[in-house]
Amino acid sequence: MTIDLWYAAVGAVIVALSVFAFLTSKHLMKKLLAFNIMGSGVFLIMVGLPQHQHGVDPVPQALVLTGIVVAVSATALALVLLRRYVRAGGNPAP
């Protein structure tokens, strides 16, 4: 088993654990954290799987880099929305 497949296998385990945490958690902040960890696992899978005989494929790496930027922006937006929800009287753990 090559190191690339190890990245993909670890990414799959991270995705599975974070899906379980996302589905079982009641607190909204824990759900957001589990969702971000799930994205990191997907990024590991995307980097680990598309290797070929000639070396590294640059397209998945570019997609992962773009995905990281989008994930940071989406997390910032989710935190602002969560903060406004709590300030408006909502309970973060319904």
Automatic annotation (TrEMBL):
Domain of life, source organism: Bacteria
Keyword Transmembrane belongs to the record: yes
PANTHER family (alphabetical): ANTIPORTER SUBUNIT MNHC2-RELATED
UniProt organism field: Aliidiomarina halalkaliphila
Segments crossing the lipid bilayer: 6-25, 32-50, 62-82
Gene3D superfamilies: 1.10.287.3510
Subcellular location: Cell membrane
InterPro entries xref list: CPA3_antiporter_subunitC (IPR050601), NUOK/Mnh_C1-like (IPR039428)
Pfam hit, one: Oxidored_q2
Keyword Nucleotide-binding set for record: no
Keywords: Cell membrane, Membrane, Transmembrane, Transmembrane helix
Name of the protein this chain belongs to: NADH-quinone oxidoreductase subunit K
